[in-house]
Design goal:
Elements: E1 2-6, H1 13-25, E2 30-34, E3 37-40, H2 45-49, E4 54-65, E5 85-92, H3 98-106, E6 120-127, E7 130-139, H4 142-146, H5 163-173, E8 180-183, H6 190-197, E9 201-206, H7 209-221, E10 227-230, E11 243-247, H8 260-271, E12 277-282, H9 287-292, E13 295-306, E14 309-318
Parallel strand pairs: 5-6, 8-9, 8-11, 9-10, 11-12
Antiparallel strand pairs: 1-3, 1-4, 2-3, 4-7, 6-7, 12-14, 13-14
Helix pairs in contact: 1-5, 5-6
Length: 319
């Protein structure tokens, strides 16, 4: 059994939707313990390591009342000597003293702590009175995203998605390693990079020759094996894909001469030729456009990028 502590963005809504989509794709049973904590079947570390809006993943070794932590020493599973351990407390709806919990736990297992360079990290997750104790298997490190920040790529574009959001969109689609993903408006390849790093086979289509060349350079720089096509998506006759994940063009894009209200419905209708699994993000609400094209909206989320830019995220399937 695994426990995952979700990030707090949108009160945990992004983390919950991401986890729910991936768990469904991997057929992984799960239980929401609180707004920020989920417990799931052990579907493997690759499943956990994909998550963008999560803090840590930990393999649960004990679950019970906080009052019973001092009794775990008697259990067979805690008779191992854990030299070099570090306890980390996560509290939700609880006023218990974190230091007291750490000391109680440390005094209840065999071994010596090492807070500076731990060999084992134990996550002590406290929700109200309930406590989950787990051996950490993964921590989401912001440095992993920093090295793929748009400004750190060989070719920069100011509207390119940051890697954390790009990864979230891919996870919302549920597409798995070995499956195919299409970004029909790929720009300089932000979504393609994240997809490739997760073992997904990405293809991008980009009208602007400069940005298409930039996408190729960027995915090669990060060691991604993907395909970038310099073409007009509306004239492109590519095949079927397991998912389309894309950030809809906006602003002064050369493809936007007809305006959003004409361009978006046309694109949304054409997506049907290439997939039955769609995740898109855009600067306006697109409910009517999607429904008119016979897409069934499964998830709709709103995020504020900054005071002058909102984004609406949709996960859809064909009716």
């Amino acid at each position: 059994m695994l426990a995952v502590v979700l990030s707090g963005e949108l009160d945990g809504e992004l983390g919950k939707e991401e986890f729910r989509a991936l768990a469904s794709s991997y057929k992984c049973g799960f239980e929401k313990v609180s707004e920020r904590v989920v417990v799931s079947d052990d579907c493997g570390e690759n499943f956990i390591r994909r998550l963008a809006y999560a803090k840590v993943g930990t393999r649960v070794v004990w679950r019970g009342s906080i009052r019973d932590i001092s009794q775990i020493r008697r259990l067979d599973r805690f008779r191992e000597v854990y030299d070099g351990f570090k306890p980390v407390v996560w509290k939700f709806n609880s006023k218990v003293d974190s230091q007291e919990i750490k000391e109680t736990f440390a005094n209840s297992i065999h071994g010596h702590p090492n807070l500076d360079n731990p060999r084992i990290v134990f996550d002590l997750i406290v929700i109200n009175d309930e406590t989950l104790i787990g051996r950490r298997i993964w921590k989401n490190d912001p440095k992993d995203y920093a090295i793929r920040h748009p400004q750190r790529r060989p070719v920069f574009h100011p509207t390119s998605l940051k890697p954390k959001l790009a990864r979230f969109l891919i996870n919302l689609s549920g597409v798995k390693p070995g499956q195919t993903l299409l970004d029909p408006f790929c720009g300089v390849g932000g979504i393609l990079i994240e997809a490739g790093l997760m073992g997904i086979k990405p293809t991008g289509v980009e009208l602007n020759q400069r940005w298409a060349s930039g996408a190729k350079r960027n995915i090669e720089y990060y060691g991604v094996d993907g395909n970038v096509v310099n073409a007009n998506f509306f004239e492109w006759r590519g095949g079927r894909y397991d998912a389309i994940v894309t950030d809809m063009p906006y602003g002064r894009s050369s493809m936007m001469e007809s305006g959003i209200n004409e361009f978006y419905p046309r694109a949304i209708k054409k997506f049907r030729e290439h997939t039955s699994n769609l995740v898109i993000v855009g600067p306006i609400e697109m409910d009517d456009m999607l429904e008119n094209a016979k897409w069934k909206i499964k998830t709709k989320l709103h995020i504020r990028v900054h005071k002058s830019l909102d984004r609406w995220i949709y996960s859809c399937s064909l009716e």
